[in-house]
């Protein structure tokens, strides 16, 4: 039996964060008629069972923030998913959701965190039963869940199709990997990334008050990112563009070899390029 021990927490009415053992966070937003699941994690254990037996019995849509394996790794356990067109081709991904890749990442995070988790890599990370059907997610698309509406914001940068969502009832922005304290952005898309984050920043206090990203390593489980993170991210990207950025070398949190990497730092945020990685491709 694949583990059902995924921790979850209702941090605001009808808003759940599921902790995929420090690998990723999955969010579930429950309305009066429907629910929305944001991301599918790395695909450790039986996420679907936890959603359907512990969190909601309502019909739901699965929305993927972007096409990295720690967010689409469980997609094949669902029938169909929504993803932006720019991230919808999974035939040649830099970080593909292969079985070896998903196990590699789970071991990397478990090693980094130095914890014991309620899953077994071999038993609880298994092949997808099928490829999910993909629906194309649009900027501005609204999911009406009954009593609450969730709006999609295309926020390219981390990936070309990265999307964030805002829930109008809780006034919470779920930012995927678009906003984070360790922001990974390819160098040639800084302008696009800054514009995407500025658009979200402009909606602060209007459409949302709190920001959650899809990992909780720089915030408490169920707790929002600090208020400074999004403005700091924008300022950091600006400083890279205008040549005033302050750079320093830090340990690469995604290196299994203890490698160092160069980051630009501004306040609470560090920005670095998406480095070449040793992610197993098959
Ligand atoms: Zn990512």
General description of the model:
The protein has 282 residues and is an alpha/beta fold. It has one domain: Ribonuclease Z/Hydroxyacylglutathione hydrolase-like (Metallo-beta-lactamase, Chain A, 4-Layer Sandwich). 21% of the residues lie in helices and 26% in strands. The protein has 6 helices and 16 strands. It has a 5-stranded mixed β-sheet with strand order 1-2-3-4-5, with no helix packed on it. It has a 5-stranded mixed β-sheet with strand order 8-9-10-11-13, with no helix packed on it. Strands 12-16-15-14 form a 4-stranded mixed β-sheet. Helix 5 runs antiparallel to helix 6. The longest helix has 15 residues. The protein is globular and about 50 Å long. The model has no long low-confidence stretch (mean pLDDT 94).
Defining traits:
282 residues; alpha/beta; Metallo-beta-lactamase, Chain A; 5-stranded mixed beta sheet
Give a quick precis of the structure.
With 282 residues, the protein is α/β, with parallel strands linked by helices.
